[in-house]
Every structure is written in C-alpha cells, then in structure tokens.
Amino acid sequence: MKKILTLLGSIGIVGAAATTVVACENNDHHDNGDRQAEINHQLNNLKDINKVIPESKKDLGVIEDIGMATIKDTFRDNNQNLNLNNDNFQVSQIGNESSMLHSFKGYKGHIIVKYKVFKNLFDHTNLGELANAKEETIKTTILDQNPNIREFNPNFVVFQINKVKDNKYQALIKGQQKHSRSTIVEFTILQTQNS
C-alpha cells in the first residue's frame, strides 16, 4: 500500500510540473503577442517626418559640398527644434541638388532635401584681368561673372590672395558655413605702362 501511495504521489508531482510548464509556455506566447501589438501601436502612432518639417526647412540653401556630414549638419542646424543629432537619421540617394533623409529617431517616413553646392555655382573661376588684387575687387568680379552666385547670394569670403608669377594671381574663396571648403579663382592684374 505504501508503494502504491508513493507511486501515485510521484505521478501527481510530474503531472503538476507538466501542467505548469504548459501554462508558462502559453503565457509567454500571449506576452509576446501583446508586446508585438504594443510595438505596432507605437509605430503606427509615430508622427510622419514629412508632415513635421515645413517645405521651407527642406531647402538647405547653398552648402559647401555633398558630403553626408555637411548635409546632416546643415539640416540639423536648420531644424534645431527637433533636437536631433547626426546619429538620429540617415542620408541616402545623395545627388548634386537633393538627397533623401530617412530613419529618423521618433518619426516615420522620409523627406527630400534640396540644396545648391557652392563650388557648382561658379560659371567662371578665371576672372580675367582685374585692376588690383584687393578682396573687394575680387568679390565684385566674382558676383559680376557668376550669375548663379549672385542669384543664390551665399555668404563667402576671399582669403589667401597669392601672386603666382609676374602679374598672375590666385585667391581662395570660401563659404562662411561650418566646415567650408575653398575654391580657387585665378586672375591677372592690369599692368601699367611707364612712359
């Protein structure tokens, strides 16, 4: 009799354990479903970045180059209210006049940003013959000979004016944005004849 009771007790413990395992498995499956539903709910409730950013903020103006960091920095500077850093979104489909920004942290969707590249605005980097090598003369000539620069009116400075030889000169032109790269313009100085 004692043996039968021991045997029945063992079967009862094993049966209870099996029931507990099955119950845990079912709860985990149910919890996973709830978690997935919550994730889906959160994703569906994210704001569409295309509706958050006004059209005027999608035009980055004149940028120095089409490097990923330049595009990110300029976009972030133009949209400081989003409190983004460069790791909070991605840039792809980079072209000479537009790029796609996507994978925004806390937002869904993507946007297309537009821009003009500073060095591509130059129709003429050889300015011809100038009266002198002063910064104001160089700047005025650049604006006169390069209608795109005049139209988009980017801020730029003339620096490092160097005499190459005889009456030939070069000057470096640089935008006033962060991380600006320079563009070289060339010109000659009008020679005065001594009588």
Automatic annotation (TrEMBL):
Residues 1-23 form the signal peptide. PROSITE patterns: PROKAR_LIPOPROTEIN (PS51257). InterPro entries: Lipoprotein_mollicutes-type_CS. Keywords: Signal. The keyword rRNA-binding does not apply. NCBIfam families: LP_plasma (NF038029), XXplasma_LP (NF045726). This is Lipoprotein. It comes from Williamsoniiplasma luminosum.
